[in-house]
Write the structure tokens for this entry.
Amino acid sequence: MLVQGRLAPSPRTVLGCQLPAVTDSSSPAPLSVPAPAPFPVAPRWEIWAVRLLLAVYLVVQFAFVRREGYVGQDFGTHTAIMEEIRASNGAKWFSMDGTNRPGIYWLASICKTYTNDKYTYELHSQIWIVLGALALLLFHRALLTTVRAPELRVAAMAIIALLPAHLIAGVVYAGDIAVMLPFTVAAWALTRSLSTTERGTALRYAAYAGLSLSVGNFLKVSFLMLPVAALVAIVLVWRWGRIRTAQAGLTTLLAVVVPLLVGGALHQRNQRELAQAEERHAFWWDGNGEMSWRSLLWFRPADRAVLNAPIYWDQNPENQLVLVQPGVHSYPALLHLGVFTDVLNYAPKGGYPAATPRPEPQRSYAILSVRGGMIWSVLAVVSAFSLAALLLAALIRPSLAPTTGLAVFALHGAVWFLPIMLILPYLRSAYTWGYWLSRLVVPGLWAAGFTSAWLLDRVLPARARWWFRGVLAVALLQAYWQFRSLWF
């Protein structure tokens, strides 16, 4: 950088993060240190690559709908709830279970009226598919705030856009279909809010984040916890000296307090309407549920079988479903299987596993996907721990802080994922009721893709572009295996 005709010295970096000059590491950095620019310009080839990936995503998803992919887990239950809520004419918002939020039932009811009950669930899924494409665009925008190498941004987009867990959850008629757009809008808007010191712009985007989290509460119960992620992100960015105390307070009001109030009010209504309902989620609070802490955190000998991409419906000689036998497989192995394959086998013909077992060549591609995915699973774990260590270090030395976009997106993903994971040892039916299924943690998977791209961007030599191109080639191969395992 030229300063009055002279070449100024380059700033120091740690893991690729710029280190501004700080005289007192115990206090926030001065506001003269700018936050990273939210949206650098992507090269033209990257823009076209993202468009192509979105086109493939849409083709795959609409093909799922044509094959009745919306008929998934508990389809009969969800349709019955929709009919009950519809018949109440707005008097009833909840039925059977408080985790079943009313948003998808309201939309399905509108679709039923609009199509005269001919294409109710097809139209419902198609609406969320299009909204999912918008979420992917915002995910790419978020990557631009942190990942410098366009090859790595495209690699992350390829893996995430064609991830089996994401593709299946984005079609099946259940609450998971609706989570990605409000989740991504909330993280993106909060990033924009915390990346500027111009009050009007900051508060406008904070309001968008709060509105998105508020709407999310009507779609999935996990949104109740996300204001915690927003609050931690605001405190960290304030600690790093990127925003003033007054801005932090107003942002907290809009992006944290408002969705907390909405979520709390919705929870109170849920409690009133279901006061006499039977409890459907049983807990053993002594920690003696079906899944032990060892199975939650470490592997089991039988996990090697996961590399052959079994499906949920495979049985042992005693006619028992193999994957749901308590204590046989670990949570990491089952999660990995669910992330990189269509473990419930919905792609051939929706929720009709007996009629359409997984044939060839899809089975071979599923095996390649689950085995090749080991690279990305290990990378995701390493990047998560690396970022956690960096965030802790940045509490003491704000000069070490990562980009605002990375912190916001990673915190939102962690707060979504960790409560679902850590509750498993206390659930009586963690295996048999499928609480390990990856559809429950798709936002966490997107955050893992973000942090993985960040780590590679920081550790690979910036001048050796062939490293980045090599990563992109491997990612595209993985995405191809994922795509072929689902394409019928």
About this structure: Strands lie at 2-3, 6-7, 12-14, 17-19.
